[in-house]
Amino acid sequence: MTRSYFGTDGIRGRANQKITPELAMKVGQAAGLIFNRDGERRHRVVIGKDTRLSGYMIEYALVAGFTSVGMDVLLLGPMPTPAVAMLTRSMRADLGVMISASHNLYEDNGIKLFGPDAYKLSDETELEIEKLIERDLTSRLAGPQELGRAKRIEDVRARYIEYAKRTLPRNMSFEGLRVVLDCANGAAYKVAPEALWELGAEVITIGDAPDGFNINRAVGSTAPQKLKEKVRELRADVGIALDGDADRVIMVDELGHVVDGDQLMAVVARSWRDEGWLAKPGVVATIMSNLGLERYLGSLGLTLERTAVGDRYVIERMRERGYNVGGEQSGHVILSDYSTTGDGLVTAMQALAAVKKLGRRVSEVCRVFEPLPQVLKNVRVSGRLALEQDAVVRAIEAGRQRLDGAGRLVIRPSGTEPVIRVMGEGENPDLVTSVVDDICDALTRAEAA
């Protein structure tokens, strides 16, 4: 069955156009019916959100959907995605929902669902929800006496902060570290500064004044320029940039250089190997991770297993084969000893712990390998058919032949945006750029035809 609603990271689209109140209510009803089957006890769902204006609309539409099929709703307010996942399990909920479009701007929004185990739902369950969304569910609604209730939970910030701090040794302190923290005007704008301050860091925040419209706008993990400037201006030890729902992170060293997800995975893997905490001698990452990461891990006696793009595929491989470190170059880092999804704050804390343990500068601890030149470009398309055009197929094959074992080429449709991503990697940056440009040109011509 073709998936009509769910992508690689839940349901996502333009607020009040694709993500409408009607759709949100139907998602609540459909998911509620699936996770409210036994009827012998009250079932509950937790709902969190980021700071987008449309979050109010979607939140209350979901409440209407869930309560109409007899589920109780616990409202968390603005909280990071990993906090929602953690609280789903901690509060013994049957389902967790995060309202967010992650790193997208405010015009978009999305609905992410977590099962009672705090993991994202399987493809099979998402397809089951999609089938119910398309049906008339009137006959399956709860009777007047069986309707659900909604309640706002007040102490969730403290719960998540305490959880995050407990991922570190009890004697770990960040005292002496000057940290610039970019909260992306998003879901972690309160919890992240508080957590780092409680651990002893001097915290200077930017992107901490959400107004419903400014989430991810020129701030956050996808726009680190302001963070780099502030780190250099204040002579800070480190900069940390989260995204809108705080499930990803990138860092900036004291020189203003970006430390991406590949470097962070390498730092954590090395630290955990030294401490004897790695469940298996390796890391799981996607096909987009830099070849430099693979070579560096090899020098440590560790392997790199690659998956399709999307943190859900990384998590599936980790669960299947028993790894406890994995992630994406974009900054989704999954540390499964602590979380069932990417957690930007916890990942940053693990990197800072390595810095404190080694007593060296962030640039020395967190930039552990030299990445191979990588070129990534996006071509906006109306669908995936452009990849099937003869001219595009020929351009891709010609590019692979030009690289001829001296690099990698990855072309894939985005799971979250109407674009095709073209990534080239190799020792010769001019050659890589030329190959990527030729493929992008072929895609552009195919789209215009």
UniProtKB/TrEMBL annotation:
<dbReference type="InterPro" id="IPR005843">
    <property type="entry name" value="A-D-PHexomutase_C"/>
</dbReference>
<protein>
    <recommendedName>
        <fullName>Phosphoglucosamine mutase</fullName>
        <ecNumber>5.4.2.10</ecNumber>
    </recommendedName>
</protein>
<dbReference type="Pfam" id="PF02878">
    <property type="entry name" value="PGM_PMM_I"/>
</dbReference>
<dbReference type="GO" id="GO:0005829">
    <property type="term" value="C:cytosol"/>
</dbReference>
<dbReference type="Pfam" id="PF02880">
    <property type="entry name" value="PGM_PMM_III"/>
</dbReference>
<keyword id="KW-0460">Magnesium</keyword>
<feature type="binding site">
    <location>
        <position position="245"/>
    </location>
    <ligand>
        <name>Mg(2+)</name>
    </ligand>
</feature>
<keyword id="KW-0597">Phosphoprotein</keyword>
<dbReference type="InterPro" id="IPR005845">
    <property type="entry name" value="A-D-PHexomutase_a/b/a-II"/>
</dbReference>
<dbReference type="InterPro" id="IPR005844">
    <property type="entry name" value="A-D-PHexomutase_a/b/a-I"/>
</dbReference>
<comment type="function">
    <text>Catalyzes the conversion of glucosamine-6-phosphate to glucosamine-1-phosphate.</text>
</comment>
<keyword id="KW-0479">Metal-binding</keyword>
<dbReference type="Pfam" id="PF02879">
    <property type="entry name" value="PGM_PMM_II"/>
</dbReference>
<keyword id="KW-0413">Isomerase</keyword>
<feature type="domain" description="Alpha-D-phosphohexomutase alpha/beta/alpha">
    <location>
        <begin position="260"/>
        <end position="368"/>
    </location>
</feature>
<dbReference type="GO" id="GO:0008966">
    <property type="term" value="F:phosphoglucosamine mutase activity"/>
</dbReference>
<dbReference type="InterPro" id="IPR050060">
    <property type="entry name" value="Phosphoglucosamine_mutase"/>
</dbReference>
<dbReference type="GO" id="GO:0005975">
    <property type="term" value="P:carbohydrate metabolic process"/>
</dbReference>
<dbReference type="InterPro" id="IPR036900">
    <property type="entry name" value="A-D-PHexomutase_C_sf"/>
</dbReference>
<dbReference type="InterPro" id="IPR005846">
    <property type="entry name" value="A-D-PHexomutase_a/b/a-III"/>
</dbReference>
<feature type="active site" description="Phosphoserine intermediate">
    <location>
        <position position="102"/>
    </location>
</feature>
<dbReference type="GO" id="GO:0006048">
    <property type="term" value="P:UDP-N-acetylglucosamine biosynthetic process"/>
</dbReference>
<feature type="binding site" description="via phosphate group">
    <location>
        <position position="102"/>
    </location>
    <ligand>
        <name>Mg(2+)</name>
    </ligand>
</feature>
<dbReference type="GO" id="GO:0000287">
    <property type="term" value="F:magnesium ion binding"/>
</dbReference>
<feature type="modified residue" description="Phosphoserine">
    <location>
        <position position="102"/>
    </location>
</feature>
<feature type="domain" description="Alpha-D-phosphohexomutase alpha/beta/alpha">
    <location>
        <begin position="159"/>
        <end position="256"/>
    </location>
</feature>
<feature type="binding site">
    <location>
        <position position="247"/>
    </location>
    <ligand>
        <name>Mg(2+)</name>
    </ligand>
</feature>
<feature type="domain" description="Alpha-D-phosphohexomutase alpha/beta/alpha">
    <location>
        <begin position="4"/>
        <end position="136"/>
    </location>
</feature>
<feature type="binding site">
    <location>
        <position position="243"/>
    </location>
    <ligand>
        <name>Mg(2+)</name>
    </ligand>
</feature>
<dbReference type="InterPro" id="IPR006352">
    <property type="entry name" value="GlmM_bact"/>
</dbReference>
<comment type="similarity">
    <text>Belongs to the phosphohexose mutase family.</text>
</comment>
<dbReference type="Pfam" id="PF00408">
    <property type="entry name" value="PGM_PMM_IV"/>
</dbReference>
<dbReference type="InterPro" id="IPR016055">
    <property type="entry name" value="A-D-PHexomutase_a/b/a-I/II/III"/>
</dbReference>
<dbReference type="InterPro" id="IPR005841">
    <property type="entry name" value="Alpha-D-phosphohexomutase_SF"/>
</dbReference>
<dbReference type="GO" id="GO:0004615">
    <property type="term" value="F:phosphomannomutase activity"/>
</dbReference>
<dbReference type="GO" id="GO:0009252">
    <property type="term" value="P:peptidoglycan biosynthetic process"/>
</dbReference>
<feature type="domain" description="Alpha-D-phosphohexomutase C-terminal">
    <location>
        <begin position="376"/>
        <end position="441"/>
    </location>
</feature>
